[in-house]
Structure formats: C-alpha cells, structure tokens
Amino acid sequence: MTSPVRLALLGCGTVGSDVVRLLHEQSADLAARIGAPLEIAGIAVRRVGRDRGDLPVDPALFTTDPLGLIKRDDVHVVVEVVGGIEPARGWLVEALRAGKSVVTANKALLAEDGATLHDAAAEGGADLYYEASVAGAIPLLRPLRESLHGDRINRVTGIINGTTNFILSAMDATGAGFAEALEEATALGYAEADPTADVEGFDAAAKAAILASLAFHTRVTAADVHREGITEVTAADVASAKAMGCTIKLLCIAARNTDAAGRESVGVRVHPAMIPLTHPLASVGDAFNAVFVEAEAAGQLMFYGRGAGGAPTASAVLGDVVAVARNRIAGVHAASESAYADLAVRPMGEALTRYHISLDVADRPGVLEAVAGVFARHEVSIATVRQGPAGGGPAGRGSDAELVIVTHVAPDAALAATVRALRGLEIVRSVTSVLRVEGGL
Ligand code: NDP
Ligand code: HSE
Fold first, then answer.
1. 405 — phi, psi (to 5°)?
2. Are both 168 and 287 inside the same structural domain?
C-alpha cells in the first residue's frame, strides 16, 4: 500500500452524501482496488450547520471555502458534485491547472464550456473524468471514450432524462395529460419543484452535447443542440401514437451525416418523437435511461439503467475516483480530450426525419388533393394517410374529418414548411398534432 489518495469533496447533497456513504462502506475494497486508501481531506458545502442525518463523516471536515480546500497541499483529487456553471468552473480550472485530477457530475458545465476544463486538464497534466454527468449509473462515457475508440460511431439515440421518461410513460399507461402526469412525478419525487430543466429538455440537451462530443470527436456544446421539451405533448398525441403501434419518448439523437460532396457533419437534437413499440428504446419505462449506439463495426449496442438518484450517480462518481486514483499512483493520466474530427454541426433544418401530422379538415371533395398538393410542393413524400371522423378540433363544426398523415423521410425544414403551409389552407380547420417519427416504422 502506498500513502493515501486524499479527496476534496465539493458538495454533499443528494449525490455527495452517497459518495461519502459509499467511500465509508467500501473503503477496504476501494483501497485494495487502488493500491492505496482513499481519504476525505475536506467537504465544501454552502451550509456547514445543515442537518446531514447519520452521515458517517467527521463534522470537522466541512468547510464553506471550496477554493481554500482545493489549494491545500494534502488534496490530490477534487470531486465536484455541486453543479452549475460558476463558481464550479473556477474551482475546477484551479484544480486542473494545479495538476489535481477532477471527477465531476456537472453536465451543465461540461456542456456549456467543456473546452475550458479540457484545456486546463491538458495544461496541468491532470485527469478530467465525468461518467456521472450523463445517464447516472450507466457506464456509457467510458465505452464511448475508450472501448469504442477503435470503431466509428454513426448514430447515438437515447432516453437520457428520467423525469420526462417517467411522465411520458405515465401518460402512455394511464391516458393522463401532461399536467396530471407531471403532478404525479412531483408527488413521487421524480420531478423537482421547478421542473423546467427536465420538461423543457435543457437537461437532456446538456447530456446530448456531452455524448455527441465523445461519439464524434468534436466539441459540441449545449447551444449546438436543437431542443424541444415535452410540455406540448397531449393525451391525444399519445393516443395517436398508440393507434400507430408507437409510443412517445423524449429522444436525444446525435447523428453523423455525409453530404453529396463527401463532407461530414453531425446533427444533435432533443425532442419528443414517436417510436415503434418494436424499437429497443420503446420498452424503457418509468424513470430509467437507455442509450442505443450504432457503430460501423460493433453494430447496435444498448446501454440501460438508472439515470439519476444519489446512490446510482455516486456509483459512477466512485468508478471515476478509482480510475484517477490509480492513474495518480501509476504516475500517468488518461488520454486527453479527442476533438480532432472537428465536424461541422448541422442545423436542425437539415436533419432527416419523418412527421406524423393530424389535421381537422372540411370533409368535402378536393380536400385530400389540396392537402397532398402542399406536401408535393415542398417535396415531401407521403407514406400513409388515414381518414376518420374529426376528433381533435373544436366540437360542433359539423362535417369535418380528421386526416392523419405520416411522411417519408425528408429534411426537417421542408417538413416544418409543409406544416406552416397546411395551417394557411382554408380547408384545414386546425393542425391538431405534429410529432416526429423516429426509429423506423
Ligand atoms: P444538491 O443540490 O443535492 O447538492 C448540492 C451540494 O452543493 C450541497 O451539498 C450544497 O451545500 C453544495 N453547494 C451548493 N452551492 C455551493 C457553494 N457555492 N459552495 C459550496 N457548496 C455548495 O445537488 P445534487 O447532489 O443533486 O447534484 C450535484 C451534481 O450532480 C449536479 O451537477 C447535478 O447535475 C449532478 N447530477 C445529479 C444527479 C441526481 O440524481 N441528483 C444525477 C446526475 C448528475 P449544502 O448541502 O450546504 O446545501
Ligand atoms: N433530472 C435528471 C433526470 C437527473 O430527470 O434524468 C439528473 O441527471
């Protein structure tokens, strides 16, 4: 055994307190795996006097001075589970430049400005590990940044937000509307008091940027990700999906594209979409996460598990702590960020997708022809059309009909322009639902 590897723990909330618990419960095993014991040198929090229950830790370790803790000579590794952009960025840059390896779960910071952290790690010769930042307990980033480095990833499709997956799964199971399902998610502790980051897709967009950066060897930030949340998904949309043998999921899709001239780019988007029940992601229910990776040689891979919660996230944090502690003892650090491909990020309008569109229309001769003409003018090919009695529009209109149209694959800009033009037709009473369709049908 060599001398202890000493950790500065920044944050002791949901994740941090489980990091402390696991460090305590597994100290002997962790020491054996690393070849040196792990010790907590200090824990930076906002409120030293906060009641932390029966946390197995010396209260004297708590401090409100994270920077002072990081700078101490007896601190070797910094574990950041506070979150947010500042002051976390300043702390981590300070640590990395000083050669102290960092383990962080901070997806918001990595997605907004991962470049600054990677540059600081390269400057200081330190490790920067962040497995917990995407999909909690699921070992996903290490496979992308190590195991699949001999392959070429073409597409990553994932359910990477547990709160929205819980809500959509509840809407699917019970027929509830969004507001009712959100209420249930809040009552059960899945949704936070302010659910905006989850339901508007910000959390998933941050994770999508991190995944895309690793999968495509390109710096992708949250600002590059096209983002739509689930607040507009209605019970009628869910029923429509069911009628088509589909379910609705909030998907993250990061895909490589090669244009006619052979130029490669990557598109990254987060939005609700219908997927067929036969797709592997369709059966991912409750608050679980899953990521489906398509690689040239490996083929299709699926990663599944708990994407959030104290203990699952702490499991990923500790896996990283073991890795950086071992590196420290061996006197090495991991390969730095791989961003050599530097692919252009494609705008959403160029993404190739399919639309499912429900319209309330006047039920009279020539309507179908007029509607089909709009699709044709935008070079969007129709795959299927179904007509039934009007359901989605205002009651009492008399002779209306519902048209449900599913397109073939087309650029998103052409599909969106088609919907705008349909809204302008006199015979279209209302466009009651527009959803993208992914995953083959
Ligand atoms: P919490 O809000 O539960 O805990 C935050 C901790 O940071 C608290 O201990 C708080 O102190 C401390 N803190 C806040 N501000 C400061 C500050 N200025 N200086 C020092 N300490 C501060 O967050 P979580 O544990 O839920 O999340 C932590 C990180 O993990 C975030 O980046 C989050 O995105 C990420 N993550 C979380 C998951 C989850 O399931 N919760 C899943 C995956 C990632 P005090 O205790 O005194 O309030
Ligand atoms: N709020 C996130 C989710 C958990 O619902 O998945 C942290 O990543």
1. -120, 130
2. yes
How far away, in angstroms, is 142 Cα from ligand 2 center? 19
* CATH number of the domain bearing residue 410: 3.30.70.260
Host domain of residue 185 = 143-306
Residues 149 and 173 in one domain: yes
CA pair distance 164, 207, nearest whole angstrom:
14
Domain count, the chain: 3
pLDDT in tens, 101-158: 999 999 999 999 999 999 999 999 999 999 999 999 999 999 999 999 999 999 999 9
In a domain, 353, yes or no: yes
Tell which phi-psi region holds residue 328, choosing left (phi > 0), alpha (psi between -120 and 50) or beta: alpha
- Counting ligands in written order, the one closest to the CA of 316 is 1
pLDDT range class, residue 262, cuts 50, 70, 90: very high
In a domain, 191, yes or no: yes
The pLDDT-based confidence of 392 (bands split at 50, 70, 90) is very low
Q: Which amino acid is at 27?
A: S
Q: Kindly report the protein residue whose alpha carbon is nearest to atom 4 of ligand 2.
A: 308
The pTM assigned to this predicted structure is 0.96
Instruction: Out of 306, 338, 366, pick the residue that ends a domain.
Output: 306
Q: What residue owns the CA closest to ligand 1's atom 42?
A: 308
Give dist(CA 39, CA 98) in Å, integer: 20
